[in-house]
Structure formats: structure tokens, C-alpha cells
Write a structure and sequence with these properties.
two-stranded antiparallel ribbon, about 20% strand, elongated, Rossmann fold, alpha/beta, about 280 residues, Helicase, Ruva Protein, domain 3, about 35% helix, 7-stranded mixed sheet, single chain
Amino acid sequence: MIDQLPPLREVIEHHGIAAKKSLGQNFLLDLNLTAKIARLAGDLSNADILEIGPGPGGLTRGLLAEGARRVVAIEKDPRCMAALAEIAAAYPGRLETINGDALQIDPYAHLSQPIKIAANLPYNVGTELLVRWLTPEHWPPFWESLTLMFQREVAQRIVAQPGNKAYGRLAVLAQWRATPQIVLDLPPEAFSPPPKVSSAVVHITALPAPRFEANANTLSKVVAAGFNQRRKMLRSALKSLSPEIEDHLIAAGIKPTERAEQIPIEGFCALARSLDHAKS
């Protein structure tokens, strides 16, 4: 055991917290595994940790046992609050829980720098939260690193390289201003109830500045347009962005007949710069 609190199965039974599909819940019950995931987030002793969807608190306990300075946990399911309160009592002053929807709550008032995010994200909001964290108005972002559990298919999309079928908007957003890597694979049977798919933990470290210069909004539009019609050649897929799109593609060193999944991030950034230059 990693602490003096009861095993998670007992906690779930005692508080009546059966996993709900509607909330995207799949609980990790092995506390040695949750402690391992916490260690993958790096040194926690000098950081506040934001956790989304703690459920009965398996990863929460891992983070606290591994020395997190403070954990702020946002949980939508009111059934979990009593179990989380027991963890807060065992780690005085180090756990703050907020009952609410992570998509609606601004957690930054509750956190002090430096900040890391660590979470077994609920399947139904994971990608949306990730995109928000990768596309803030200002960079560097409020977080130093993200250590997040996803369905393995989503994890592969985050780290995919050009030419790979999984390469798309998520890969460009994640790799333009950060360094993502898959650090742990988890089979369905690690969870209760077991999901139908495998999972993976992705560790993402924010870079101090983007790899290549580009306006974030323009780049986002270019990438979205390119991958929304990924079977089309770029001169067709991007024609809504500019009547002279072929000229811009050539100026960016991209063949107009190529498709989005063949273009490296540097190429998308060059295209975004060309489009902005024409506007100014």
C-alpha cells in the first residue's frame, strides 16, 4: 500500500461509486500503478498539480504519496466527494477538491506556479481539454507539463509523424510548441470496468517558445482546413483560405498536389506566415 487509507475497491463499495458510462468513468484500482503514473510526471515536490476526474482518488493518492506540494482535483460526480474528503483529511492542507465540470471551471485561481497537470482523463472530455491546454492565447502556457491518460488511439494521434495515418491536427498542435511522448501502455484489464480499448499515458513538456514562427490562429485555420478534407490535394482543401492558395503553397515550399498528412509542422508554419504576409 502507498498510504494508510483503505484499498480502492473498499472505497468504491463503501461510498457506492460504481463507474458510470455517461461520465466516461473507468477507474484504475491498482495503487502501485497510480503511483507509477504520478512518478512519470517528474518531481512533484515543488509544484501544484491540477487533476481532472479523480473519481475515487487512485491517482490523487499516488500524486500525494509521491510528494506533490498540492493537488487541486476537479470532479463532476458528487458521489466521489466523500471519498476525496477522506484523502484530504489524510494529507492535511495538500488536497483541494472542486465539485463541477472541468470544461466550465477556471482552476487557475486555486493554483500557484509552477503547475503540472496529471489526470486519468474521462474519455468523453479528454481531447477537448487537451486542445484547450495546447492552444492558450499566450505561450508559454500556465502549465509546465501534462501527464495524461488517453485511449491508445488518441495517444498515437498526439505523437504521430508526417506520412502516418494518425498524423493530423492533434499532432501538429501538440508538437508545434511542446514535446509529447507515450510513456506507459495500459491494457483494458487495468481498469474497472475494463474499457473496450487499450490506454496509454502521454507526457507532454511545454517548450519555452514554438519550434517555428507562426500566428497561432492562422496556423490553426490552415491545419483544420487541411485535415478536414485530408483526402484532397491541398490546393483544393485550402482554397477557402485564399484565392492565391497555390502561390502561397509554393512560397512555403509545399507542392500544391500534396495532402495534409504529408506536410511537416515547419511547412504548415511557413504557409501560415505566407498567408499573414499577404494580408499585411
